[in-house]
Design goal:
Blueprint (H helix, E strand, L loop, with lengths): L2 H14 L7 H11 L4 H14 L7 H22 L19 H4 L1 H22 L3
Helix pairs in contact: 1-2, 1-3, 2-4, 3-4
């Protein structure tokens, strides 16, 4: 957010809560805190602050923290519904994800299965049950 947007935000908050001062010093302080977020995120966080904390004055640090938490939550929700596609997962070219170790390592799977069968046969022979 730039200084003009920050000033606009402070004036907007001041119209609801006159305890939030709308002066140059407040604009500089809020600007320093609100730098990494957009005006829309800040406005959404202010509304959420007053909805959840009626009667408590909005502080720039609290609004920033709420905005960053909201952003992280939205990004995590988006990542949760996206399917990761790495080059290794798409090696076969059919576009299907190779989710299982067995699909990614078929030769090693066969070797380990045969080894397990042989170990089981040896164990049964050793016990005299085969």
């Amino acid at each position: 957010m730039d200084l003009m947007e920050t000033t606009r935000l402070i004036i907007w908050v001041n119209q609801f809560d006159p305890f939030v001062q709308a002066n140059d010093a407040a604009a500089d302080i809020w600007q320093h805190s609100m730098g990494p977020i957009s005006y829309a995120e800040a406005e959404e966080s202010v509304v959420a602050h007053y909805r959840l904390n009626p009667g408590q004055q909005a502080q720039p640090g609290g609004i920033l923290k709420r905005a960053l938490n909201n952003r992280a939550s939205k990004e995590a929700g988006q990542r949760a519904i996206e399917v990761p596609q790495t080059r290794r997962e798409l090696e076969q070219g059919d576009g299907k994800l190779m989710r299982y170790w067995r699909q990614r390592n078929p030769d090693e799977w066969v070797r380990l299965m045969e080894q397990g069968k042989q170990d089981r046969r040896d164990d049964l022979d050793k016990r005299g049950l085969a």
